[in-house]
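Q: Can I see a sequence and its folded structure?
A: Here is a first one.
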Amino acid sequence: MRTGKGKIETCCEPVLAVPLDEDEAAELAAAFKLLADPVRLRILSLVANAPGGELCACDLPEALGRSQPTVSHHLSLLTEAGLLTRDQRGKWAWFRVERDRIAVLRDALAVS
């Protein structure tokens, strides 16, 4: 997986098809570690299932029962990894799931 500045871009052959080298394993583990947080998984799910496939950051603190700074932290990590895209509209940021980036992780676990 090439993560350049944390962004999930490409990966390796499926883990079950070809042994990973040490660098590939470390990068893939870092990507999955990012998703191993329940709040981040909920954010992805909420954004992916929002009407029109996008959600305003302003709606997330209440939906998650978390403070705005906590939500902003998680949104930043997901955006830096390329799993979400951010669109600034005036005062508010709107987020969309980058399905092709999530597909990279899915494909790494594909059974061939």
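Q: Show me another, different protein.
A: A second, unrelated one:
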Amino acid sequence: MSVLPAPYFHDEEAAYAKLESVVWPNGPACPHCGGVERIGKLKGGATRIGVYKCYQCRKQFTVKVGTVFESSHVPLYKWFQACYLLCSSKKGISSHQLHRVLEVTYKTAWFMTHRLREAMKTLGFEPMGGQGATVEADETYFGEKEVKTSNGKRGPANKRCVVALVERGGNVRSFHVARATKQGVRDILKANVDPATCLNTDESRLYKEVGQEFAGHATVNHSAKEYVRGDAYTNTIEGYFSIFKRGMNGIYQHCAEKHLHRYLAEFDFRYNERKVDDSERTEAALKGIVGKRLTYRRSNQEQGIVCRAQLDTLYIDG
């Protein structure tokens, strides 16, 4: 039984009512035809909870249709519990822990967490920064690639690479890339950062040329143990990487490389919603469930590793 006080964490009817208030703030809308008129709620002892009928297209639906919860046989209140636990745990919560807490199978808990990570993913990015703003950029390496390079050497060449951007006082965006190259880093920066921004990086040669395309480019020399020089530092992005690595190494431990972008979306979401409480963060995640149903059918693209703009390697049914 849930120890969370809100009724929608342990009562199915209350859970449906809560989800309807989040997904349909202006009243029920048919996910099949888009109609908002001539919609009635079905009643009766044999009727499932939360079933509506659209008398324009003559189809039945619930608030779960067209969301990451569609076709799930897990009670909705358990989905709310899982979402709260995932949103309130700073470094994440493992599927094994969820399967014990929610009393579902491990496979179910794993699928639930991936659906919720999909809900956390942000669609449609506005440029970061702007005049007077500072964006820090850096890359980090962790774990081992599932397909290693042929030279057999150790080091960054055989580790998974994540490039991240963080606006001071604002949001973070992180990207899983096959290799950190000058061109790849430039493409990410140009697509995500306003050119009027001041860019802050370490001494890496990846940023030397692209830094000239922004209003300013300040660097610190970490190899010489220089970490702060006035307003020049990358401590904000290093702090994000610290949380990310603690979560990946201490909580999740085993993450298939093809799923890494979903874990990045999870850590990005929690960081970007850090200024609100756990309940508000959970509600923000629930607002992202529409149009993101996952089916996990395999595709030829599923093995590829690309930037965030091309990360939808698993099928998403709208």
